[in-house]
């Protein structure tokens, strides 16, 4: 893992996007196409904005959705399908984007997604980490063992409170308790991982992930086992770290 610290979240997001775009272009040059994973949430705003403005032959890129609430319609302000459609998919001419349908039968939807992604070699995963150090919606203690690509997961109170505090829901009671999430092992199968983590409220999670031993209690800590993880932090999210 390599860690890059920037003065602001804007600079951080731009740097992450530029590096991600470089890796996508490299995959296209070498293989003729690229497959990526795309995350959502407030941490990805600047990165996605820059990425959609960066030179990439998107017609050669297939993308997969990282996670989605169960039971949330596309029209809901917190829908990750809506988020990605408006901030990413509708802005570039992608070859294909595989959404997670949180309104579909969960078992059937997971099987569909599993069949699709098992055929792919993922070149770049764009991810973040949660305030509880979750990866995707794999809250602590995360399952580090399962090889199944997509899982049905329960969201813990810390995770649900983060979604409420970020303004996606009018009350914590309205935050769903379950989601479909890409598994930890599936994320780690990506050739390259771009992890973008801004803001003071993520500082403790960043410290736990980078300075503690790898543990399911700090899911993001497992990124240290992936040699091609690039973590982009801003001044605030890196504020509790020993100098690195």
What's the helix and strand layout?
Blueprint (H helix, E strand, L loop, with lengths): L1 E5 L2 H23 L2 E5 L6 H7 L9 E5 L1 E3 L10 H8 L8 E3 L7 H12 L6 E4 L22 E5 L2 H9 L12 E5 L1 H5 L3 E6 L5 H9 L17 E6 L10
Parallel strand pairs: 1-10, 2-3, 2-6, 3-5, 6-9, 9-10
Antiparallel strand pairs: 4-8, 7-8
Description:
There is one protein chain. With 244 residues, the chain is of the alpha/beta class. The protein has one domain (2-199): Rossmann fold. It has seven helices and ten strands. The protein has helices at residues 9-31, 45-51, 80-87, 106-117, 157-165, 184-188, 203-211, and strands spanning 2-6, 34-38, 61-65, 67-69, 96-98, 124-127, 150-154, 178-182, 192-197, 229-234. It has a seven-stranded parallel sheet, with helices on both faces. The chain has a three-stranded antiparallel sheet with strand order 4-8-7. The radius of gyration is 17 Å and the shape is globular. The chain starts with a strand and ends in a 10-residue tail after the last strand.
